[in-house]
Amino acid sequence: MSETDLELLTCYTREESQDAFAELVRRHVDLVYSAALRQVGSPHLAEEVAQSAFLKLARHAHEFTPGTVIPAWLYQVTRREAIDVVRHEARRRLREKIATEMNAIDATAADWEQIEPLLDEAMQALEETDRAAVLLRFFGNKSLREVGQTLGTSDDAAQKRVSRALERLREFLAERGVSVGAGGLGLILSANAVQAAPASLAATISSAAFVGAAVTTPVLLATAKTIAMTTLQKSLLTATLVAAIGVGIYEATQNSLLRSRNQALEQQKASLVEQTQRLQRERDQATNRLALLAEDVAKARKNPAEVMQLRGQVGSLIRENKAAGEKSALNKITSDPTARKAMRETQKMGMAAIYGDYAKRLDLKPELAGKFNDLLADTVMDNIDLITQALHDGRSQTEVERIFADADAALASKVQALLGDDAAAQYKDYTQNLASTLSSAQFAASLTGDEPSKQEKLRQFRQAMQEEIATGLKNAGLPADFQVLPILNFANIASEAEGEQNLKLLEGIYANVATRGAAFLTPEELASFQAFRTTAINNSRMALTMNRNLMAPLSK
After folding, report:
1. Rounded distance, CA 517 to CA 507, Å?
2. 295 neighbors 214 (Cβ within 8 angstroms)
3. What CA–CA distance (Å, rounded) separates 477 from 488?
4. Per-residue pLDDT at 223
């Protein structure tokens, strides 16, 4: 075509000529794509930016005045779109990081960049059936039942085949210097092995633009939500079980209690799985509705009344998407009463584990102990709501401190009303010493020598912890009952700045305890404590980040 850019745009707007717009795309797609690629650094994201830029060109085609230089206009729009996409991608990667970090707590972390170059060679080394099992299970995210059905075997046989294939993959990688456990390898494959392939860019842009500006925004929103939710669906179940308190980080003294309640947890998991699947179906239905609307608009462009009606429907979907984005990942699960009840029961178990010794000291009768644990569980759920609201409203660190100071005071009053003055005083003391109690209990396994010697070392360790906590709080100008365990201090989830201050405080306390420990711990025990210290800080930071992002609005 010999027409100018503006002539092509005029032809597109007046005659609805898809060919005219396709010619514009052909002329300038290289410029736009290259500019986008330089700014976002990813071919896939550059395609998204380019598509968005051309969609805006289609939407504003009737607004251009004579003398407008289309390449210059596209260049400026590309820059703005690139900035928006980079921001969106940063949020998406942060959400994906949540799932990865959650898995990393229990699985040996392996560098995907090391595994990726060897993966296909390792897969090729597997027997055909083993390779199919791995592809179905981890590349296709199929359940063991689905794997078994596809391969014509039972669930148990599928499990064995998958486990055997993973072990062979692990051995193949180990021979080439990449060490990773079979379980960790499965998680890594599920998270990284399959990525979306790019479509034909020019054809996609031309087709999408011709559908019309009315469907552009909701389609992009649906795509963004799909990307986010696909990742979140993999992590929500696990996240719900650990959100707010993350008992597993300091679990040493309560393993037997938690194990005894596995059956109840499994029942709760089943309920949460059902809720997750329902959310998946709803998301898919919304995406399908948007696609159908796009088709309807394309067919009905010559009927203005029908187009306006469809635009109204699209507007409703945009509002629905916006409302969904205002909620957190946790909201999407706990908005269902059954799921919220299941989560509350999980928190009740966690608090019963943490405060089990306290209940024993008071010799609480089962009925009263149950009420006490109910009070703690309800407080956890209330604090989750407070965190979610604070993150939604963008509360300052000072406001967050006030909100949770008031919540702590309210809990203290309720404990006093339930158990009496003396028990409330003991509750305050027990809570204040949780850091030294739980750290001592977990570190006890690293102590050596006969039993009297180990008990003496443990006594000195606990005393050092308590004294250094008191000193650290005084030096920081914090109250003596400040909770130094980061994940048990809800303000740390609502405010990243608050969380970092708490982590630095705990790191300083551990450092001082390590210095004092040189006087009564062996070099090997001291080295073990240093490793414990590093793990505790890293896991606490990971848990805070995970919970903060699960409770933050998805659109943030």
Report:
1. 15
2. no
3. 20
4. 29
Per-residue pLDDT band for 44 (boundaries 50, 70, 90) equals: confident
pLDDT of residue 108: 40
| Predicted pLDDT at 442 | 83
Q: Specify the residue for token string 């079979």.
A: 182
Closest C-alpha among 363, 356, 489, 459 to residue 419: 363
H-type alpha helices, 327-450: 329-334, 337-354, 356-362, 366-393, 397-419, 421-432, 434-443
Half-sphere exposure in the Cβ direction for 517 (13 Å, CA): 27
Crossing angle of helices 70-106 and 182-192, in 10° steps, is 160
Longest dimension (CA), the chain: 94
Reference 106, options 233, 194, 235, 195; nearest CA is 235
What is the CATH code of the structural domain delimited by 1-101? Answer: 1.10.1740.10
DSSP state of 553: B
Find the Cα–Cα–Cα–Cα dihedral 485, 491, 493, 496, rounded to 10°: -100
pLDDT (tens digit per residue) in 201-213: 555 555 445 444 3
Q: 502: number of CA atoms within 13 Å, CB side?
A: 26
Round to whole Å and give the CA distance between 238 and 543: 12
Q: 111-179: what CATH class?
A: mainly alpha
Ordered by start, the domain boundaries in the chain are 1-101, 111-179, 355-551
pLDDT tens, position by position, 354-383: 898 899 989 989 899 999 999 999 999 899
Whether the pLDDT of residue 136 is over 80: the answer is yes
Mean pLDDT of 389-398: 87
Dig out the tokens for 28 from the structure. Answer: 């300038």
What is the per-residue pLDDT across 197-241, written as a single tens digit (0 to 9) for each? 554 555 555 544 544 433 333 333 332 333 233 333 333 333 333
The encoded tokens of residue 332 equal: 């999407």
Q: Where are the beta strands (DSSP E) in 259-388?
A: none
Please give the C-alpha separations between residue 459 and each of 380, 515, 528, in angstroms, as whole numbers: 31, 16, 17
